[in-house]
Amino acid sequence: MPNKRIQIFDTTLRDGEQVPGCQLNTKEKIEIALALEALGVDVMEVGFPISSPGDFKSVQEISKVIKNTRVCALSRAVKNDIKVAAEAIEDAKNSRIHTGIGTSDSHVFDKLRTTREKVVERGVAAVKYAKTFVEDVEFYAEDAGRTENEFLAIILEEVIKAGATVLNIPDTTGYCMPWVYGEKIKYLYENVKGIQNVTISTHCHNDLGLATANSISGVVNGATQVECTMNGIGERAGNASLEEVVMILRQQKSLEYDTGINTRCLKSVSELVSEKMKMPVQANKAIVGANAFAHSSGIHQDGVIKNRETYEIIDPLEVGVSESSIVLTARSGRAALKFRGKRLGFEVSKNELEEHYKRFLSIADTKKVVTDKDLIQLFSQTSDSLTG
Ligand code: KIV
Ligand code: ZN
C-alpha cells in the first residue's frame, strides 16, 4: 500500500469538553486551541455553538486566532443550529461545518421517532444548507456503528450528492469490534457511489476500550481522517486517544501511514489539557502516562540500562518525555541501584554495592518509592561507615 497521509481531526474542545466537570472558559479554550495548532492537527472541532452563548463565543474567538488549522463547529441537522455554527466560524481562515443525524434504528425510531426516508431528507437538507455558508461540510451518521450497512450506504450516497466533503462514521456507543468496524468502512468504500472523491472519517468511542483499535481498523480499510481527543477524553469512557492513534501510525512502519503531528509536543499538550480540564491522566496511560517510560522491576531495569529498546518501543524524546526513568522500589535490582547512585555521583565497587543493596532493600520494603534524597543518605552513610 502506498505511503498515506492520515488527517487528524481533534475534538478535545467539543466531544472532549462534554466530560462532566471539564467545562472550559474561552481563555482556557484558546490556550488549548493554540497548543493543538502547534501540535499540527489538521482540523480542530472547537464547539457546538448553538448549545450556549459561552460556547458560541469560544468558537468565535478561536476562529479569530487560529491560522494554520481548519476550525470546525458542530451542529445537528437543524437549520438554526447550522446558521449559528456558520456565524461562529465566520472569521476562521479555514472552516468546516460538521452536521448530521442519527441513522441506527434506535436513533431513527426511538430518539427521532421518524422514518428512514425522513432521516435521509433531513441529512440532505442539512448538508445543502451548510454548503450555502462554507465549502467544507462534514456529515456524521450518528450511531453508524449500530446502523445497517445498506441503509448507511443509501444516506451517505445522498449526502455526497448534496455536497458533503467528509463522511464521518461514528461508533457513537463504542459497540463495534475492530474487524466489524473495519468491514463497515470497507463495505462503504466499495458500495457508495462517489465515496472515492470524499474523505472517510472514523469517530470511535471507548465504551469497550476499543476506540483506538477501531480507529486503526477504519484506517486500514480506507478511512483517511481520524477523530480523536488528547488523553482520550470524551463522553462516558471517552474517544479514541490522539496520542495513541498518532504513535501507532508512526511506529508501525509496515502500515506505511503517517500524520502531520509534531509528536514532540504530545506530552506537553497532554499535560495542558489535563491541567485545564482538571482531569488527571492515569499513570499507566499509553504514551503520556507518568509510568509510560518508567521501569521498576529489576529484570526490566537491567535490560533498559543495557539497551533502552529491550523494554521500550518508543524513544521517549519522540513524544516530548525527556528520558526513561528507573524507579527504585523493593522490586528493583543492583543494576538499577548502581545506575541511580552513579547519576548522583557515587561510584562504588562490587563489594560496596552488595552492602548498599542490602540497606537499600530494607529501606525499599518500608517505602513505595526510594527517592534521590534517600539514596544520597544511603550512599553517604554507608561510604562513611565503610571508610570510617
Ligand atoms: O459520537 C458521536 O456520534 C458524535 C457525533 C456528534 C459526531 O460525537
Ligand atoms: Zn462522539
Structural account:
The chain is α/β, with parallel strands linked by helices and 388 residues long. The chain has two domains: 4-277, TIM Barrel; 294-387, no CATH class. It contains 14 helices and twelve strands. The chain has helices spanning 26-39, 53-65, 79-88, 105-111, 116-131, 149-162, 178-191, 211-220, 242-251, 266-277, 298-306, 334-343, 350-364, 372-387; strands spanning 4-5, 7-10, 43-47, 70-76, 95-102, 137-142, 166-171, 199-204, 225-228, 257-258, 294-295, 325-326. The strands form three sheets. It has an eight-stranded parallel β-barrel, surrounded by nine helices. The protein has a two-stranded parallel sheet with strand order 1-10. Helix 11 (298-306) links the parallel strand 11 and strand 12 (325-326). 3-methyl-2-oxobutanoic acid binds next to strand 6 and strand 7.
CATH topology (level 3) name of the largest domain = TIM Barrel
Helix content: 40-55%
Count of separate DSSP helical elements: 14
Shape: elongated
Average pLDDT reading: 96
**What is the annotated CATH architecture of the largest domain?**
Alpha-Beta Barrel
How far do the termini sit from each other?
69 Å
How large is the share of residues in beta strands? 5-15%
Radius of gyration: 25 Å
Structural class: alpha/beta
Bound molecules: 3-methyl-2-oxobutanoic acid, zinc ion
Instruction: Detail the poorly predicted runs.
Output: none
The major beta sheet can be summarized as: 8 strands, parallel, barrel
Domain module tally: 2
**Number of distinct beta strands:** 12
Helix and strand element order = EEHEHEHEHHEHEHEHEHEHEHEHHH
CATH superfamily of the largest domain: Aldolase class I
Under CATH at level 1, the class of the largest domain stands as: Alpha Beta
In which order are the strands of the major sheet placed? 2-3-4-5-6-7-8-9
